[in-house]
Write a structure and sequence with these properties.
The termini are far apart. The chain has a single domain (about 5-85), classed as Winged helix-like DNA-binding domain superfamily/Winged helix DNA-binding domain (Arc Repressor Mutant, subunit A), CATH 1.10.10. Helix 2 (about 15-25) packs across helix 4, helix 2 (about 15-25) packs across helix 5 (about 60-70) and helix 3 (about 30-35) packs across helix 4 (about 40-55). Helices cover about 60% and strands about 0% of the residues. The protein is mainly alpha-helical. The protein has six helices and no strands.
Length: about 100
């Protein structure tokens, strides 16, 4: 299973990180719920919280983050928000012009 890298992994709870990893493998919410012994609604709550913490809007962006450890540039979060959440040192490309 893929490890969440650096500051990204530190932002999520252990359960959110587990759900994020399962999303990155291509599983549906229903499959994740079965595998993690959760209800599908609980999976959705964990995903919503992870999206909010990472400043993203969907599972595709989450899968990219899990795979690379880097927030995608087009996720809608501005550079100031990312610096505050992740620290500019963790993502030096943020804020560069």
């Amino acid at each position: 299973m893929v490890n969440l890298l650096g500051s990204v992994g530190k932002l999520l709870t252990r359960r959110e990180a587990e759900i994020a990893r399962l999303v990155a493998t291509g599983l549906s919410n229903k499959q994740i719920a079965r595998k993690a012994s959760l209800s599908e609604g609980t999976v959705k709550i964990h995903l919503h919280r992870a999206y909010k913490k990472l400043g993203i809007a969907n599972r595709s962006s989450l899968a990219v983050i899990v795979s690379s450890g880097v927030l995608p540039a087009s996720d809608g979060a501005d550079a100031t928000t990312r610096r505050g959440r992740l620290g500019i040192e963790a993502y030096p490309e943020i804020g560069r012009r």
